[in-house]
Each structure stands twice: as C-alpha cells, then as structure tokens.
Amino acid sequence: VRLVPALAxxxxxxLRQLRVxxxxxxxxxxxxxxxxxxxxxxxxxxxxxxxxxEPGTAALPEGVVGKVRLKSFVEQQGLVGYDPNLDVLxxxxxxxxxxxxxxxxxxxxxxxxxxxLLPLTSQAEGxxxxxxIVHVVSCEEEFQQQQLDLxxxxxxxxxxxxxxxxxxxxxxxxxxxxxxxxxxxxxxLRKRQxxxxxxxxxxxxxxxxxxxxxxxxxTVAAIRFxxxxxxxxxxxxxxxxxxxxxxxxxxxxxxxxxNCARLATLFDTFQQAVEQGxxxxxxxxxxxxxxxxREEGEWLLLFNYLLPFPEVLQQAAQLPPPxxxxxxxxxxxxxxxxxxxxxxxxSSYYNRVHVLGEPFxxxxxxxxARLQLLGAVRDVFHSALATLHLPPLSQI
Length: 396
Description:
Isoleucyl-tRNA Synthetase, Domain 1, 2 domains, 14 helices
C-alpha cells in the first residue's frame, strides 16, 4: 500500500520483486489515440473552456490545453468528501496522458466481464459493474489525485469512474538517512540483511536456486509486514540499520514464515512416517477424540485464532460498499497483528509439546487430535498469508 504510489511510476522491477500486481495500461500505439479522445471530450464538456491568457497576467504553463471548473462540477453533482480548495484546474497534456493510462488499466480489468462495460443506465436496471477504482496515494499527493479523479469523471464518456475511492497513506520516514534511499536500494538492503540473518542462524547457505527463492520470499514477507503492520493513515518510521528484519525477532514477517514452515515440516515428517509404516494414516475427523486435548495452549489456539479468524478477515479485507465520501480504509494491520500473535502462541505451544510421539497405539488418540488441530492452524496461516499475497514456505 505504501510503496505502490512511488513504485508504480518508475520501478517495475521492484514491483516484480515484491510480487505486487499493479494495474497498468497497454501503452504503446493505443495511448496517443486515447489522449486524443480525452482532448476531444475536453472540448465538448460544459465544465471546460479554452485556456486564454488574460492581458497583464503571467504566461500560461507549457502544455496547458484547457481548464475545467472542478468546484462547480462537485457542487452540481452533489459529490462529498473532496477538498474544498478544489476550484479551476488547468489541464495539461501530462494529466490527459495519466488519465488515458488509467482508462486503459480499467478496460483491461473489465475485459473479461462484458457486463461491467455496459453504460451506467444498463447497470442501474439490475446489472452492476464488478470494477471499483481505488486511488492508492500518499498524503502529499492526495490533492492532485482528487483533481485527476474529478477530471476523469468529467471526461470519461464510458462512465467507469462512478466507483472511485481514495486510500490515503501516511508518510514513510527513515531515521538519520545518510543519503536519500529509493525503493530499489531499500529492497536490496533488506534482502542483504535477511541473507546475513539467515547465515547467522543456519550457517553458510548454499548459493542455489532453492535458497535464493527462500531468501526472496522472506524478504518480501519482512517488507510487507514492515509496511502493513501500521495503519495506512499513520506514519511509518524505518530504522534501516537497527532493523527488525531478522529470523529471530517475534514481530517480523520472517518469524511468521518460519512458523508456517515448521507446520509444513511437521506434516511432511508425519506423512513420511505413515509411508514407512511407523504410524497409521490420520483418521477422519468424526473418529477423533478431542477430549485428549488438555493443554491450555491447544484451547488458546482454538478460541483465540481458529474461531475468530472469519471475523478478522471480515474486518481487514472487506472494503466498505459505495457510500458518501471518497475515502476508504483497508485494515491490513489487523491481519499482520493476528499472524504475529498466532505465530508467538503457536511457537510457545510447539516448543513445549511433543506432537509426534512414540509409535504406541495408546498414544495415537492424542497425537491425531493434535495433528487435526494443527492442520486447522496451518490452514489459517495459509489463508491469512494469501490476503497479503504471500506464499507459505514449506521449509526454511
């Protein structure tokens, strides 16, 4: 959320490394035609007029192609939530190009759903668009993005802009930066720190593709948790030297991934033992004896995490339906904090309890009940990580 406003413009490589899927227009030969269509729409709009320099005033900025009366449009349309200082906007070629790119990105999102391309009159008769437009923008650029939002509403003949909302992010500050740091340098710094932390914990790492993938995934997880564990409206302060990027720290994304991998290893070990004839296969749930679960940590996992998880998802992942005002919130910190606390309580339980016991029949009931419980915990890990677009690791 916080990285995207800066990254979307100039660093597709970092977006790829962070596994961020960001809508993009096709560009190329289609873009000039889209810009020309917007210029024509500007010339026809009742809210626009030609930009002429008045005698005795300064020269108009280069590239200005017209002006629109945003304040009048907002008042006439009854729109709420926009900055009251919005007034007359001088429209430039750059603005039209930005709008053309946004339009193409929306059309690409809609191309698989013809219903969403219908005019709003048809949608009002019972068919609705599946596409909501969310402007993810830094607080410093909120005013300019509202200008683009309104200009788009005025010029977009397809009326795809009816569901525009704004998700405004607070600033990201760095403690005592020796020099300005960009997204590329930030990613590479965290990746190097993750590698060094892993070497300290596991010894010298093999330089093969598997380890590279693990380090990359851990780095992405660490950065996502670093950015998303704080409410998006609040400021984040990064300490790039004394970092929370660690395999040991209990507040990091790496710690969450580590515990997810511990569960994968547990079930791999159990499955191998079953194939070797050491244990019988896990019976159906209906045949399990859950009264064998007597540890306090087992019931803590059930009542604090398994049962409330659907409510956590509903709080965090569901954007509000269209309503008055343009701002929305996305409570990503809810999922991050849930996963961190789950990891801490699961780790405490796992370090204390021996799940896979000796292969004696009188111990199977307890072992199977624990495996079923931890299988549900594993599913919660996977589902919660999926909301952050993070793949679970099978080993570290």
